[in-house]
Specification:
The complex is a heterodimer of chains A (111) and B (115).
Chain A lengths: L8 E5 L4 E6 L7 E8 L6 E6 L4 E2 L4 E4 L5 E6 L8 E9 L12 E6 L1
Parallel strand pairs in A: 1-9
Antiparallel strand pairs in A: 2-7, 3-4, 3-8, 5-6, 6-7, 8-9
Chain B lengths: L3 E4 L2 E4 L5 E7 L5 E7 L5 E9 L2 E4 L7 E2 L9 E3 L8 E8 L10 E2 L3 E5 L1
Parallel strand pairs in B: 2-11
Antiparallel strand pairs in B: 1-3, 3-8, 4-5, 4-9, 5-6, 7-8, 9-10, 9-11
Classes of the chains: A mainly beta (111), B mainly beta (115).
Chain lengths: 111, 115
């Protein structure tokens, strides 16, 4: 099962961009790269996902390396509400299988 | 509203007393899964199900059982709970086999304490 590696924590200033890295060197061709975040006392919530091309949505952008062995979640302007644990995971597009979460990156946002 | 519903939200029990945590989704998802979350360990998968009557072990299945008799429900059963199963539990669901790596929807969690 392909795993991901993320830094334990990162810090950002409010209203500045944040780049959260993720390494997934054993990714397979059918694995989609997903990002979720977990606010205190809540369940994880979906942020963004992609396969090969960079993706944008209202919450964030996802930049995927050309070899797909790493990716970066970009929050364009961090707010205090973005302080959370961010998880990068891989989901097989062919269906089913285990979905492995690591410990994630705890993002601290300073006012 | 599309959602994953877990019950109960909080549960305190004693060692050895069988319990069931329910999970239901209203999105017609094929895939459902249970996770436990302990401080510093992130989410660890207990069991998952790819469709009705199809279940498989995750990374930490010991001491747990699941069943998938209906597509919408995926209960987690602790036949004889022990204190090391004190944890925060999350149920999740998604479409499956669309070829598009569908996103997971999570419930609000069940905080279980086994005394």
């Amino acid at each position: 099962d392909a795993k991901t590696t993320q830094p334990n924590s990162m810090e950002s200033n409010e209203e500045e961009p944040v780049h959260l890295p993720c390494n997934h060197s054993t990714i397979s061709g059918t694995d989609y790269i997903h990002w979720y975040r977990q606010l205190p006392s809540q369940g994880p919530e979906y942020v963004i996902h992609g396969l090969t091309s960079n993706v944008n949505n209202r919450m964030a952008s996802l930049a995927i390396a050309e070899d797909r062995k790493s990716s970066t979640l970009i929050l364009h302007r961090a707010t205090l509400r973005d302080a959370a644990v961010y998880y990068c995971i891989l989901r097989d597009g062919t269906g089913g299988f285990k979905t492995i979460f690591g410990a994630g990156t705890r993002l601290f946002v300073k006012a | 509203e599309a959602q994953v519903t877990q019950n109960p939200r909080y549960l305190i029990t004693v060692t050895g007393k069988k319990l069931t945590v329910t999970c239901s989704q209203n999105m017609n998802h094929e895939y459902m899964s249970w996770y436990r979350q302990d401080p510093g360990l992130g989410l660890r998968q207990i069991y998952y199900s790819m469709n009705v009557e199809v279940t498989d072990k995750g990374d930490v299945p010991e001491g747990y059982k699941v069943s998938r008799k209906e597509k919408r429900n995926f209960p987690l059963i602790l036949e004889s709970p022990s204190p090391n199963q004190t944890s925060l539990y999350f149920c999740a669901s998604s479409f499956d086999r669309t070829g598009r790596g569908e996103k997971l929807f999570f419930g609000s969690g069940t905080q279980l304490s086994v005394l």
